[in-house]
Amino acid sequence: MTSIQIDGLKYQYPTSDFKLAIDQLTITENLVAIAGQNGAGKSTLFKLLTGLVHPQAGEIHINHRDLASLTPEDRLKTIGIVFQDPSSQLFNATVEKEVAWSVLQVETDAAVVADTVNDALATVGLTELKDKNPFDLSMPEKKLLSIATVLAVNPQIYLFDEPMISLDWPSQQLVTHLMQHLAEEKHQVIAITHDMNWLAATFAKVDVLADGQVIFEGKPETFFGDSALTQKTGLMTPRIMQIAQEVFDDSRVYLTPEDYFEKHSEKR
Ligand SMILES: Nc1ncnc2c1ncn2[C@@H]1O[C@H](COP(=O)(O)OP(=O)(O)OP(=O)(O)O)[C@@H](O)[C@H]1O
């Protein structure tokens, strides 16, 4: 089981008043959403988890190992990030070379590299585009390619920053199923999202940030069931809850339309 343990974490950008301060946060679940309003500190937390920025105080332990003590190669094998903007992650001449570049950071055997690249491209459905220039791909294809570059390294923990953004519906389905599959395969999958419908339907746990602090950690149904808290965070409840409230004056928690129909068919 993978676990992330954060203690006494403090971070401030040199050029901003924003302060991230997380006294204590433990993540052991395999499918976790990070939510919070714009500027709450979600991406900053991801930067700290990947080592892109270093905290001024505190520690992050992954599987009881101090993140700061990991070698660059160990770090790549431990945590991989899919950025919100895929273009920031792509710089090679072809789709195939893009994925191979990632694999080569952790593997030298040419046959293994070739197999890994083929598997990663097949998983995201980009095999037929392997000779294309990444910058000639559509936005959803670029995003899928950036996911393939991380899949190819097979890290223990996957961080997705707003994975649903810039994906079309079939790609959203593909990526959601892929994330669920990775979680079942004992990877930790953590995603920042503003999409409360997707969050409610997909995640076992949500950590909610506000003003650089964690103000809720627990099950999505507990979070959405606390109307004072959801209002305080400025986050919407799932659309099905809003419809039930508006149309039927029913203020119970519904995570998905299926959840609504299930709970109502039980009553009949
Ligand atoms: N490189 C930076 N330099 C200075 N300030 C920054 C930098 N990056 C982010 N910030 C500031 O830190 C705060 C937190 O930003 P962050 O991107 O972590 O929030 P977020 O919760 O991910 O927001 P969003 O949902 O809009 O992406 C914001 O006030 C932002 O302006």
UniProtKB/TrEMBL annotation:
PROSITE patterns: ABC_TRANSPORTER_2 (PS50893). InterPro entries: AAA+_ATPase (IPR003593), ABC_transporter-like_ATP-bd (IPR003439), ABC_transpr_CbiO/EcfA_su (IPR015856), ECF_ABC_transporter_ATP-bd (IPR050095), P-loop_NTPase (IPR027417). It is a peripheral membrane protein. Keywords: ATP-binding, Cell membrane, Membrane, Nucleotide-binding, Translocase, Transport. It is found in: Cell membrane. SMART domains: AAA. Belongs to the ABC transporter superfamily. GO terms for molecular function: ATP binding; ATP hydrolysis activity; ATPase-coupled transmembrane transporter activity. The keyword Amino-acid biosynthesis does not apply. The lineage of its organism: Bacteria, Bacillati, Bacillota, Bacilli, Lactobacillales. Gene3D superfamilies: P-loop containing nucleotide triphosphate hydrolases (3.40.50.300). Pfam families: ABC_tran (PF00005). One of its GO terms (cellular component) is ATP-binding cassette (ABC) transporter complex. Residues 4-236 form the ABC transporter domain. This is Energy-coupling factor transporter ATP-binding protein.
